[in-house]
Amino acid sequence: MKSRLKELRARDGLNQTQLAKLAKVSRQTISLIEREEFMPSLLIAVRIARIFNEPIEKVFIIEEDEL
Amino acid sequence: MKQVIFILLSAAVGFFTSILVLKGFKYDFSHLAEPFQIGLLISILILLFISFVKYTQIKNLSRKEVEGDEEDEVDVLIYKKYTDFSLLVQSSLILSILVMCAAITTTLQLIYIVLGIVALIISFLFSIRSVQLLKVAYPDRNIPSTSEKNFAEKLLAISDEGERHVLLIGLYKSYFLFTTALIIGIVLAALYSLSSGNSQLFSIIIMSLVLLMTHGKYSMAIRNK
Questions:
Q1: Alpha-carbon distance B127 to B97, whole Å?
Q2: ipTM of the shown complex
Q3: So where are chain B's domains?
Q4: A26 and chain B: CB distance < 8 Å anywhere?
Q5: How many CB pairs under 8 A join A and B?
Q6: pLDDT per residue as tens digits for the range B103-117
């Protein structure tokens, strides 16, 4: 699963620490998601999508072969 | 390729050890006890000094007023330095116990026993400070106090899913390393018993029990889920 976290953070002028505080997770978790080393739970994915005011599928991109 | 080299090296070590044992090779390490203890004490001193430097660096970094990407960079630095600090303190704790045990079982010199106890106390105080340091580094987080009941469980409970993912990978790797290291330890203790003439049966039994307990605990933890 790919994510557009880095791009969306840059768009909204947020650093990882700020996004982590808004999503109620640690900065380490945000960093792991950005590096595609960890797939977040649905709850955290929804929280992050809401912060960026985007539909969840526009933030987290699942490739066809992963489904 | 890596695995082939590892298997060949293990076979070579096993072959030469068997030859030495069969030829009645004997080696007594007891005359190395004193330099060993001095070496350990110097290592503890160095470890504690570096721990103190890391401690100060973490405190200074957490006081730093930063914004933007620099805030993330500082957080990464604090995290890495805190991990180093924990490793250094745990290492000095283990080495202090080793100094004391080595002094009690070999030279029986009071000075090494006392220095071992002093090193152990200082290392223990540092390990208590590590939780305080965690509170300084992450003031927004509800970090439990060491005096609280079920401290370890509470500390795990405050970590989020990403942190638990990292913890799981680390623990899984160390679990397998621990198992392999203990099996090697049992084999080495048996070889030492043969080469020195001093039976290490007690330590072999203890290491085997630790292995059985660890595997049993792991199996019970995953069995009923």
A1: 14
A2: 0.87
A3: 2-143, 159-225
A4: yes
A5: 44
A6: 888 877 888 889 989
